[in-house]
Amino acid sequence: MNECLTFAVPKGRILDEALPVMARAGVVPEDAFHDKANRSLTFATTRNDMRLIRVRAFDVATFVAHGAAQMGIVGSDVIEEFDYADLYAPVDLDFGHCHLAVAEPVEGAESIDGASHLRVATKYPNLTRRHFERQGIQAECVKLNGAMEIAPALGLAGRIVDLVSTGTTLRENGLVETSRILDISARLIVNRAALKTDPRVAALVEAFRADAAQREAA
Ligand SMILES: Nc1ncnc2c1ncn2[C@@H]1O[C@H](COP(=O)(O)OP(=O)(O)OP(=O)(O)O)[C@@H](O)[C@H]1O
Ligand SMILES: O=P(O)(O)OC[C@H]1O[C@H](OP(=O)(O)OP(=O)(O)O)[C@H](O)[C@@H]1O
């Protein structure tokens, strides 16, 4: 079993917190990984049977679900949005805490949508539809890739569904949270088939699990 393992990490905000956790599990990228000017997407690690890929957060889940990467780290928001059958999230890494919420302008969503229609700007159309369906409401989703908070002010949608941490972004854009959909943290994810067939994947899951348990006990 000498095939190179591929470990996928997101290039966004959880990367800084992921790196020390990965290091304790024995996943340490080469120095070039930390060079901001480096445009490479694949990096060697201190293990000669493992490489890292650095991709967008949503794509971490896609690479792992399809077995193009065997494992990775991603927020549980991404896992829940895709709901890939071949993706398994065995370890809660207990960082990257935030939540997914519905928010609307202080003066109310009706000022934009009217009383009978419900339009939501979001990066999470599946989670959004599921949330409103649970209340028997059909929501029209407008997919954005960031800066959702600007949508109501421009009349694009009465509501947004987005990640909230401190609440500063909502506040500074004149929005208020109206319901909490999902609590989120970073997770270790693995491809189910790789976990079954490659003992190195199972060993790494155990290393991440042991580290998480030790941090929780501390
Ligand atoms: N404000 C926040 N506080 C804490 N965690 C957050 C916050 N925003 C996002 N996250 C977590 O970090 C993950 C990555 O977010 P971020 O948008 O920075 O990633 P990214 O790789 O730049 O994604 P993309 O390239 O698609 O914009 C999210 O999926 C979420 O789990
Ligand atoms: O509650 P807060 O602490 O203000 O954090 C919430 C913001 O953080 C995330 O955006 P990010 O900064 O990752 O930028 P993005 O809009 O490009 O995704 C999220 O999409 C919110 O906009």
UniProtKB/TrEMBL annotation:
Main localization of the protein described in the UniProt heading:
cytoplasm
Give start-end of the signal peptide. Answer: none
Query: What molecular function terms (GO) are annotated for this protein?
Result: ATP binding; ATP phosphoribosyltransferase activity
Recorded hits in InterPro entries, A to Z, give: ATP_PRibTrfase_cat (IPR013820), ATP_PRibTrfase_CS (IPR018198), ATP_PRibTrfase_HisG (IPR001348), ATP_PRibTrfase_HisG_short (IPR024893)
- Per the record, the domain of life is Bacteria
Name all ATP phosphoribosyltransferase catalytic domain ranges. Answer: 56-208
As for subcellular location, the record says:
Cytoplasm
Catalytic activity field:
1-(5-phospho-beta-D-ribosyl)-ATP + diphosphate = 5-phospho-alpha-D-ribose 1-diphosphate + ATP
Keywords attached to this Swiss-Prot or TrEMBL record, sorted alphabetically, are: Amino-acid biosynthesis, ATP-binding, Cytoplasm, Glycosyltransferase, Histidine biosynthesis, Nucleotide-binding, Transferase
EC identifiers of the protein? 2.4.2.17
Cellular component terms (Gene Ontology): cytoplasm
* One Gene Ontology biological process: L-histidine biosynthetic process
Q: NCBIfam families from the entry?
A: hisG (TIGR00070)
Please explain the role this protein plays, according to its UniProt record.
Answer: Catalyzes the condensation of ATP and 5-phosphoribose 1-diphosphate to form N'-(5'-phosphoribosyl)-ATP (PR-ATP). Has a crucial role in the pathway because the rate of histidine biosynthesis seems to be controlled primarily by regulation of HisG enzymatic activity.
The UniProt subunit note reads as follows: Heteromultimer composed of HisG and HisZ subunits.
What's written under domain? Answer: Lacks the C-terminal regulatory region which is replaced by HisZ.
The name on file for this protein is: ATP phosphoribosyltransferase
Q: Which organism is it from?
A: Qipengyuania citrea
Gene that codes for this? hisG
